[in-house]
Design a protein that fits this description.
It is a single chain. The chain is of the alpha/beta class. It has two domains: about 5-150, FAD/NAD(P)-binding domain, CATH 3.50.50.60; about 155-210, no CATH class. The chain has helices spanning about 20-30, 50-60, 80-90, 155-160, 185-190, 195-210; strands spanning about 5, 15-20, 40-45, 65-70, 90-95, 95-105, 110-120, 130-140, 145, 150, 165, 170. The protein has a five-stranded parallel β-sheet. Strands 6-7-8 form a three-stranded antiparallel β-sheet, with no helix packed on it. A hairpin with a 5-residue loop joins strand 7 and strand 8 (about 130-140). The longest helix is centred in the last third of the chain and has 18 residues, at about 195-210. The chain is elongated. It starts with a strand and ends with a helix. Bound molecules: flavin-adenine dinucleotide. The site of flavin-adenine dinucleotide has 13 residues, from helix 1, helix 2 and helix 6.
Amino acid sequence: MGLARGLDIPGESLDGVVDAISFIYDIRTKGYQNIPIGDKVVVIGLGMTAIDAATQSKRLGAKEVTIAYRRTEDEKPCTDVELDIAKLDGCNLLYLASPKEILGKDGVVQSIVFDKMELGDADANGRRKPINTGVSFTLETDMVIKAVGQVPYESLVDGAGISHDWGKVKLIEGNATNIEGVFAGGDCVNGGREVVDAVQAGKDGAHSILKYLKVI
Ligand SMILES: Cc1cc2nc3c(=O)[nH]c(=O)nc-3n(C[C@H](O)[C@H](O)[C@H](O)COP(=O)(O)OP(=O)(O)OC[C@H]3O[C@@H](n4cnc5c(N)ncnc54)[C@H](O)[C@@H]3O)c2cc1C
């Protein structure tokens, strides 16, 4: 699940627009001192990754960090604890705002336009759907961090001949895949959940492998 989902709006390729996965990866690999950070950072999304990107931005020296989410706090995908960390770090929360367009000058981001949303009926997962009110507004920014989810490495899984569902590995029995001797678990199977799920999948996978080896 290492590929960041795009926003699919104009202006995404402007300088100063980055995805949260690359941003966090760079912090880990290049070191804090080598990460460029804006003064006015806008983070799109309100999952764990968005919180990480926002709090890291603030701690790297951004003067203002705004987390924009198209639903409200009641529908947030992150935990209460994570949201509290972002609030304690001084991040602003902007609810019912869906990115429409990123604007720039000379190839560099300058502002972001949002559609103002309102909540409609619940979707299949029971979460109320955001609906565009037709009103838009603009925020000045010099850095936009996209954190609207990750997608699977479908080509990797497909290229290896492993059965999958839109890139998510399909399990045949226990944690065994369609290829004999190949087992899977964690994000690549469940589509991206939490560490506890991955740890349990590791245990279940080990159990499946031991059974395959006829050790148990
Ligand atoms: C920014 C961010 C914040 C998160 N915050 C939280 C949190 O606060 N709490 C929480 O519980 N969960 C959090 N999660 C989710 C959690 O990190 C994942 O659910 C968990 O790491 C999944 O574990 P995994 O072993 O399935 O996959 P991963 O941890 O993704 O491990 C997959 C491994 O496969 C390697 N790999 C990829 N391709 C290849 C290849 N071709 N060959 C060999 N190796 C390869 C990768 O390098 C990686 O090491 C967060 C995720 C992200 C991205």
